[in-house]
Specification:
With 29 residues, this protein is mostly helical. It has helices at 2-11, 21-28.
Length: 29
Amino acid sequence: MVNAFMCYTTHADHMYPVYLPEYRLVTSQ
């Protein structure tokens, strides 16, 4: 589930900026 979300956040980084702030940090790394 986390992997799928990670991919989503990468593509929709501008869609989930404040929605998943913690996830953004994960994608940054």
